[in-house]
Amino acid sequence: MTTSQRKTQSERNKRVADHSNAGAPAVVNPAWIAKGVGLMLLLALVCGYLTLCWLFYQGQWQLVLHPSKTITATPADIGLPFENVAFDVTETGQPRLTGWWVSAAPEGPFKDVTFLYLHNGWGSLSDTVAQVRQLHDAGGSVFVFDYRGFGKSEAVHPSEKKMNADADAAWAYLTGTRQIPAGQIVLYGDRLGAWLAASAALRHPAAAVVMVSPFPSMLPIVLHDPRGNGVPVRLLFHNAFDLEARMAQVKQPKLVIEKKSTPCGSGTLDKSPPCPAPAEVRALYERAAPPKVFFDGAGADTQFLQRFLRQYVSASTRPAK
Could you list the residue range(s) of the whole structural domain that residue 275 is in? Predict the structure, then answer.
């Protein structure tokens, strides 16, 4: 083989080798593969955690509010005549809220007084029948309603903001449709409803406010609920119903009642509504601005309520001479 032939063959062999090397797969550093997999797993964990936080944020109302859509009892079951009321009509003519109107007995000692009853956010109107009886026995008229998301009211998820708006709608119904003077309306809030009563009192000139077993805040209950484990509850929770911050702002006469005979649940996965500790109720009373009265539940609730009404409300219901 001549020198020229050997050179040509060498160049041919080099081209074949270069072509073979070009088609061979590149070797990837295993460390980069491990880093890529780790990053993917981290992103998946972050997305999963953010989804968990979002689900908690969207469903947090279920930790403190437990609505029922069924009505299983009415005042008629205990011999009280009542009127079904639908109010807060939308632009389409559909009422958002439903309630009951129970008129005071003609001989009632406070027949000019109307109790706007704000229930505790558990069940529906059916669970208020016994309390309606008590307020009627005290001698006044009673208006009680279901917030949106409860009973036969509009089927939406309830929230602190919506319940505040619903309380305003109930006030507008009493003062507008029924033409009841503001000075004849007593806001009566049961447990979580006490926050609504105090909040409404800051916006409306009610005659007085009655708060039964009021909670300083619903946040401690949520913090002990296992459904909030693993998420930043304090950062995400916005339905705290913080009554403690409002007690000193309410200027109307206030009756704070520690209801010792009320059945209480745990407030988490229990089927019964929770109750505050006696020390919490007393602490709220201490924070309240005067005039104020405290009742520790020892004795007849109705008689004590009547005494409070005689002292702070009945004078304001009398027509001017």
Answer: 63-317
